[in-house]
Structures are given as structure tokens and as C-alpha cells.
Amino acid sequence: MLTRYFRKMLGHTKSPARVHMADIFWSWVGAFLGIAVVAYINFSKFAETDRVYLIASFGASAVLVYGAIESPLAQPRNLVGGHVLSALIGVSFYHVFGSHMWLAAAGAVATAIAVMHASKTLHPPGGATALIAVIGSDQIHALGYRYALIPAGLGALIMLAVALLVNNIPRRRRYPHFWL
Fold first, then answer.
1. Which of 26, 25, 22 is nearest to 162 (CA)?
2. How many CB atoms lie within 10 A of CB 95?
3. Phi and psi of 73, rounded to 5°?
4. Is the alpha carbon torsion for 158, 159, 162, 163 positive or negative?
5. Is 71 in a helix, a strand, or coil?
6. Contact 26/170 with Cβ under 8 angstroms?
7. Which of 46, 73, 132, 152 could bridge across to 87 with cysteines, CB 3.0–4.6 Å?
8. Which of left, alpha, beta for 144 (phi over 0: left; psi -120 to 50: alpha)?
9. pLDDT tens for residues 91-127?
10. Residue 37's CB: how many other CB atoms inside 10 A?
């Protein structure tokens, strides 16, 4: 029984095929433009305010929505829903358990995963969005539940708009695969 358990760790399929150079190019273009738009808004328009538009979890979202566009985890429902729900959960856990940061951090991420599963919005960067709400700066904490709207929701929508435009330029790429 123990041997069977450890054999699972060996894997059971071959490594995926190489990605075509054209797909690598379009993934780069999409990621560059998606992050550039959000970062430009963050650093040029609101640098002197308390507003935050760029969060680290968007980097992981870029990998999915520009580099793995066929993945169910990269679809619009998952991108936007995963970030917004996870942000709400992260803020809630910070407010309730913020005096015990280890508990707030673990609870926020675990609950975000469970809620994303239950709502069919699983988006791995959402776990980071929940965690950022807990361990983020005073600027993030000051946003409170607005964090779910800006940066999490609006940033995800901006990245979605870029994904819709860029991912559909090449004839052999198509995004999204589903909306709801």
C-alpha cells in the first residue's frame, strides 16, 4: 500500500509537447500588454494616491490568460470571479483574524480555494490575491473591501480585455473557450 502511494509521485504521462514559436510570441505580446496597461495606470495615473492597481497575483494570471488559453483555469469566469471572490475572502479573514496573521493567511487561501471550487471559478492566482489581502501593505489594508473591486476586479477585467484582443489575432488561437 505504501509502495503504491509513492509510485503516484513518479507521474503517469509524458511531458507535454513543445509550444510553437508563434504561441510563445503571442503569449509574450499578451502578457506584456496586459501587465503594461495595469502597471501604467498604477504608476503613472495614481502614483501619488493611495490607490493600487497592480498586484503580484496578476503576474500568475498573465501566465494563464496569455500562455495557457485553453485551460479551464484561464477562462473569463475563472479570471474575474477567482480574483474578486478571493479578494473578498482575504479581506474578511484579515478583518476577523488579523491579530493572528498565520491563521488569517492560511484560512484566507484555503477558503478561497474551496469557494472557487464550489463556484466553478478556480483560478490559482486567486489564492495569491487572498493572501495579498492578508499580508499586503497598509495601503492594501486601507482599501478594505474595495480591494475586491480595485485592484482585483478592475485589473482582472483589463487583463481580460487585452486577452480577448490579443489571443484572437492569430488564426489558430481562440479565446475564450467559454464564458460561464
1. 26
2. 14
3. -75, -10
4. negative
5. coil
6. yes
7. 152
8. left
9. 999 999 999 999 999 999 999 999 999 999 999 999 9
10. 16
C-beta of residue 128 within 8 angstroms of C-beta of residue 56: yes
Give the helix ranges, DSSP H, for 10-98.
21-40, 57-67, 76-97
Residue pair 42/146 in contact (Cβ under 8 Å)? The answer is no
Tell me which residue has cell 484561464.
74
pLDDT tens readout for residues 23-68: 999 999 999 999 999 999 989 877 766 668 899 999 999 999 999 9
Asked whether the beta carbons of 91 and 98 are under 8 A apart, the reply is: no
Distance from C-alpha of 74 to C-alpha of 160, rounded to nearest angstrom: 10
Listed by start position, the domains of the chain span 22-44+52-167
